[in-house]
């Protein structure tokens, strides 16, 4: 039985790993396919050190991104209530509906923060009043904001 070789992937390979992963593969697979095609490099001490440094930098970037998202969440919750104005008919019913884009525009106008409308979850709104909405700022950070639907 032949010994396995350690290689560091330079591109993502399905069912094997993603860029920067260190994997053990059969010697023939490494020397005949992965290395010649540019998918991997033989794991030397220098390359292993580079991979560890890259992973440490990536981890720091992820932590900084999460802290930034927490700060944005605090800013959104400090403002508290965002006003969305809609045309109103009989019985305080609104024409149309309040969309995620309406809320994203209200947040941009109030705080100056860009919020992706696809990360906003709002309830079904048919009348004027106060409603709660979820704004996903980061995969781990979600802010709850209040929407006031008011007549034009």
UniProtKB/TrEMBL annotation:
Q: Keyword check for rRNA-binding, yes or no.
A: yes
One Pfam family in the UniProt entry: Ribosomal_L9_C
Q: Please provide, alphabetically and separated by semicolons, the GO molecular function terms listed in this UniProt record.
A: rRNA binding; structural constituent of ribosome
Q: Which UniProt keywords apply?
A: Ribonucleoprotein, Ribosomal protein, RNA-binding, rRNA-binding
Q: Which NCBIfam families match?
A: L9
Q: What does this protein do?
A: Binds to the 23S rRNA.
* One Gene Ontology term from the biological process aspect of the record: translation
Entry protein name = Large ribosomal subunit protein bL9
Task: State the family it belongs to.
Answer: Belongs to the bacterial ribosomal protein bL9 family.
Q: Where is the Ribosomal protein L9 domain?
A: 17-44
Give me the Gene Ontology terms describing cellular component: ribonucleoprotein complex; ribosome
């Amino acid at each position: 039985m032949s010994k396995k070789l350690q290689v560091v992937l330079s591109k993502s390979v399905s069912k094997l790993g993603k860029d920067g992963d260190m994997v053990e593969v059969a010697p023939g697979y490494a020397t005949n396919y992965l290395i010649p095609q540019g998918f991997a490099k033989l794991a030397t001490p220098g390359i292993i050190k580079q991979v560890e440094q890259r992973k440490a930098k990536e981890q720091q970037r992820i932590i900084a991104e999460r802290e930034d998202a927490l700060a944005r969440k605090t800013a959104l919750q400090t403002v508290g209530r965002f006003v969305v104005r809609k045309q109103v008919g009989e019985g305080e019913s609104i024409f149309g509906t309040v969309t995620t884009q309406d809320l994203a525009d209200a947040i941009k106008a109030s705080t100056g923060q860009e919020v992706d409308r696809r990360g906003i979850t709002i309830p079904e709104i048919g009348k004027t009043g106060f409603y709660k909405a979820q704004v996903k700022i980061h995969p781990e950070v979600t802010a709850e904001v209040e929407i006031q639907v008011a007549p034009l």
